[in-house]
TrEMBL record:
This is Peptidoglycan-binding protein. Residues 21-83 form the Peptidoglycan binding-like domain. It comes from the Bacteria. InterPro entries: Peptidoglycan-bd-like (IPR002477), PGBD-like_sf (IPR036365), PGBDSf (IPR036366).
């Protein structure tokens, strides 16, 4: 894979416990907050301050309880592997489908199933291990991660078959860069064409939302199914409203007649 920053999110050298401090403590705190989405009845959310105080210790113990592990409050490498297992499960899935488009859809659905999401604080959004994995090690408010999500899925699939996703698009975090390149290579099918011939859209293709007033592409995701004028999608950095700077990976349905949606074909991936 080209996008290998996720591997750094799985490294954890030594045990941590009360009074520990530093970057690895913050990483533990991030995963505790992310698991609060999986275990809403458990008190897991804690501050992201890099300080292993009594609150973090209690949150670790609560995670151990819901995981049916001894309630030690100590984060060993094995426990960190448990905390970070959603990311390793999603990023390390090796598709075996002969149809590359089916492989793209399956890998994307695995990221959805593992509850890929960002973390937000009072100071910033677009934070956490999922964002860093998608965005080549970067996170923080400037890093809208919808492109990173799309390219990670394409990278996973292409590399499984000994190919590179950069054969069909540049390695980037920008919707505009991806769209302009697709225009230059003849891969971009504009909304006006799509509205007349929806059958040109195929599962696995990349959709791009465009502001028709200034031709600014501002959000992207993957098409998972096509039903007439409706497409089903999987997209990162969105929300229940379909926004372009949301909180997680969501499955959505979008109407190609009421939104300006361009399509980037993945033929040749």
């Amino acid at each position: 894979m080209i996008k290998t920053s996720y591997q750094n999110e799985l490294l954890f050298a030594s045990s941590l416990q009360k009074n520990s401090q530093g970057t690895d403590v913050r990483r533990v705190q991030e995963w505790l907050c992310l698991h609060a989405l999986r275990y809403p009845k458990a008190a897991l959310t804690t501050a992201l301050d890099g300080q292993f105080g009594p609150a973090t210790e209690r949150a670790v113990q609560n995670f151990q309880v819901v995981s049916k592990l001894p309630k030690t409050g100590v984060v060993t490498p094995d426990l960190f592997n448990k905390l970070s297992s959603p990311l390793s499960t999603a990023f390390q899935l090796q598709p075996t489908e002969k149809d590359v488009r089916k492989a793209v859809v399956r890998v994307a659905k695995m990221h959805l199933a593992q509850r890929s999401a960002e973390i937000q604080t009072d100071a910033a959004q677009n934070l956490g291990p999922w964002v860093r994995g998608y965005c080549d090690g970067y996170d923080g408010s400037p890093f809208k991660w919808c492109v990173g999500f799309v390219q990670t899925i394409l990278d996973q699939v292409a590399s499984a078959y000994g190919r590179s996703f950069t054969a069909i698009m540049p390695h980037t975090l920008s919707c505009d860069v991806m769209a302009v390149s697709a225009i230059e290579t003849g891969r971009l099918i504009k909304s006006a064409v799509i509205r007349k011939t929806p059958q040109k859209i195929r599962p696995g293709d990349v959709f791009l939302l465009r502001n028709p007033s200034n031709d600014d592409w501002y959000h992207t995701g993957l098409v998972t199914a096509v039903a007439g004028n409706a497409i089903e999608t999987l997209e990162g950095n969105t929300d229940l409203k379909g926004g372009s700077n949301g909180t997680a990976v969501f499955a959505r349905v979008r109407n190609i007649q009421t939104s300006t949606i361009d399509i980037l074909s993945i033929d040749g991936l």
